[in-house]
Amino acid sequence: MPKTAFVTGITGQDGSYLADLLLSKDYHVFGMVRRSSTENFARIEHIRDRITLIQGDLLDASSLIKALERAKPDEIYNLAAQSFVPTSWDQPILTGEFTALGVTRLLEAMRAVCPDARFYQASSSEMFGKVREVPQTETTPFHPRSPYGVAKAYGHYITLNARESYDLFAVSGILFNHESPRRGLEFVTRKITRAAAAIKLGLQDSLELGNLDARRDWGFAGDYVDAMWRMLQQDAPQDYVIATGSTHSVRTLVNLAFASVDVNPEAHVRISAALIRPAEVDLLVGDPSRAKRELAWSPNTSFEQLVEMMVRADYDDLSGTHLGATARQTRTLKTIKSRRNALSAK
Ligand code: NAP
Ligand code: G4F
Q1: In CATH, 4-183+217-246+283-301 is 3.40.50.150
Q2: Atom of ligand 1 nearest to the CA of 102
Q3: 247 CB less than 6 Å from ligand 2?
Q4: What is the distance between the alpha carbons of residues 272 and 252, in angstroms, rounded to a whole number?
């Protein structure tokens, strides 16, 4: 009998990779999407006819109850969140509503509608913040450094509390940074790989960045969604750190990405004080030993392979080799502008 999964955040990077994985395992996939005046389905366009989308919002508890009543899931993956750290200083209350209280709303809906389902919460290495030990493990204390990190710590503990209070199968994956060609353009990896490709193609001249000394444990999103699924297949609920165990600076990432297209970064990269954060997470590196031991999970993609994959995808997208969604939008806008100019010249 095929299983049914309910995924919040299905339009995001991880949601789209997780949906790909679940479909490959013959799941019936329900994805929750927010109502928007323009559709935002680029990352799930290729599987649009194989999944069922239900409108709902983490802010609206009644929509979560109705969505779960309709989907009747065996597994719930809560990937939806306000996930961009700098925005969390500008919109701390909204971030708390989505990223923290949204978890409680979904857990309460699960308790009311399908208490026997299994629940995955997308916890984050941002909770470690000003790190208390290196590398970070499942038992390292939290010291978050942004409203986002604080909200994630709430989501983490409310999930643990639901497990301990109501005996729910509710677990958190503490995932370190994971990236892909589907990563949002504002995150540092994608900002850099896209700029390297655009500069190589003569479409952009410079790249403004913030703190080049920050270090992250970067992995590939496609590998990490497999760990989420494995966590829900265990006999007993348990939280896991998911990481590569290696750390690199933003500066190293810049050098690698630019070298892959044979461009000198020093001629193009500028530091902007506006991109320095009010409080920084200087160093993240995770210890995935528990996941290796108990989930038989390990990352398949190296940092070098990841950067190469992302630069290549951005280069192909921008050069039109495999015309991607972002390039198509840019070209459509250019066509509209040139038609408008031609009309006003008449
Ligand atoms: P993402 O690309 O930013 O996707 C976020 C998703 O959440 C989008 O589908 C978005 O929908 C949805 N969403 C936001 N607010 C919502 C709301 N109020 N109601 C319903 N849906 C809402 O994030 P990601 O990189 O895939 O990350 C997935 C999850 O893992 C997030 O919770 C993130 O915080 C967490 N995480 C990510 C990483 C990482 O390195 N990627 C590491 C650790 C933890 P729209 O398309 O409508 O905006
Ligand atoms: O790519 P980032 O914006 O990711 P960050 O803040 O580590 O958060 C991501 O990973 C978390 C897991 O640890 C997730 F929970 C979260 O949802 C998100 O996916 O920034 C990485 C580093 C930071 O130290 C930042 O200061 O890059 C530095 N950085 C330097 N210049 C920059 C820039 N970050 C961005 N976004 N843009 C810059 O121009």
Answers
A1: no
A2: 18
A3: no
A4: 18
What does the pLDDT look like over 77-95, one tens digit per residue? Answer: 999 999 999 999 999 999 9
Task: Indicate whether residue 251 lines ligand 2 (CB < 6 A).
Answer: no
Report CA(84)–ligand 1 centroid distance (Å): 9
Please give the distance, rounded to the nearest whole angstrom, from the Cα atom of residue 313 to the centre of ligand 1.
Answer: 21
Is the Cβ atom of 125 under 6 angstroms away from ligand 2?
Answer: yes
Confidence of residue 321 (pLDDT cuts 50, 70, 90): confident
Tokens encoding 275 = 């991109």
32-58: pLDDT as tens digits: 999 999 999 999 999 999 999 999 999
Structural domain spans, the chain = 4-183+217-246+283-301
